[in-house]
Design a protein that fits this description.
It is built from 1 helix and 32 strands. It has 445 residues and is mainly beta. The strands form 8 sheets. A 4-stranded antiparallel β-sheet has the order 1-32-31-30, with no helix packed on it.
Length: 445
Amino acid sequence: MRPRTWRVASIAIFAALISSISLAAQDQPAAAARYVVYDVGHLSDFNSWLFTGPPSFRLLNHQGVVVDAADNGNSDPFHPCFTDCSINHAVTWQDGVLTDLKALGHGTSSAPFSVSENSHFIVGVSETGTYDPLTGYPEYDAVLWRNGNRAKKLGRFGGNVSTAVSVNDVGQVVGGATNAIPDPYAAGLGPCWTLNCWPSTTQWRAFLWQQGVMTDLGTLGTGNDAVAGLLNENGQVAGISYTNTTANEKTGIPTQDPFFWEPESGMIDAGTLGGTLGYPTWLNNDGQMVGQSNLAGDKKHHPFLWEKGKGMQDLGTLGGRSGTATWINDAGEIVGGAWTTGNEAFHAVLWKNGKPQDLGTLKGYKHSIAFSINSNSQVVGCVGNSPNKCSGAFLWENGTMYNLNKLIPPGSNIKMTMPVNINDLGEIATWGKSGFIRAMLLVPQ
């Protein structure tokens, strides 16, 4: 059986958005190198990984701290494999110092999904060293690393797996944990909000963990399953929940809506754009949530912006059938991607005040998508010709899309393929390739 990994899941999301239809492209040349390149995940001579969503993860904060999973060179004894069939450990990198955060047990893997802005907290998952008797897959637990200390197990609701997805500066954590109640649709929460799309046979419940207590946030309507994936500095939460227990013909799962949660109001159904499947990808500190939702009939999906008291707004596309929003900064600027008129190409998009701006693509590539935007309106994303692969990386600023591989020192022997985060310093966390897949940090000179 071929293992399913977060890497494959992230590529599949890009594949779902683009096709191999040609488009004449333009490129903006760069005369000189602008970035210094750092390899941030080097426990061995093999791979390191920056994990991607949805939802989006904070893998790089404004202090220049990067979190990723690094291959330690030893074979993973548990199958299906956690990533590449080698043991991977969560690591953190800052100012040239790499710290191995390790895992819960000897010979097991771990992965980080988010780092707090103050750098005190990192959350993710770790294998436990046992197999789930209900599925035959390795068990994993939601974990918290505080100030570089050993992984702390956050708990479950009586089931066999849990995952921690987001953390803020006061150490609040959100994610999902299973209970012991059988549920035929538990593994269908999507797309891939549970680790590696691994099977699950009991209910998933969204949780908020704080000061040692894990609280079940509930579900929407009569649904049985929910997972929380996004958390801001005000303790507001976003995630997904089934709203009933009846599978839809086109999706094969019950209706899934995005939710917004805060202590004052509890869980609020963010609704849909007419379809039966939606999910959020990012939540800013003003409580604005973005993501994508199916339209009526579940054949198309559009990007959305949701705000409490205003509801869900369809951000539209570039004239084509579908699109997605991936990130929103605290100024309300949104990035993602959408089909152009006639569904000729999928392009990176910047939405300001609800209006889309086509960011184009790079010379030699047919499609593009934006993943992250900082407070200075700098945007990063990837380009590709294949419907299943990010092949190149871009930085967009001040109306120009730059090829990131032309902004690094010549002779680096590294190809940047998928930038996932850009911070307010202009630093970029990106996948790079130099024989092996590497987590890289680009620092502007």
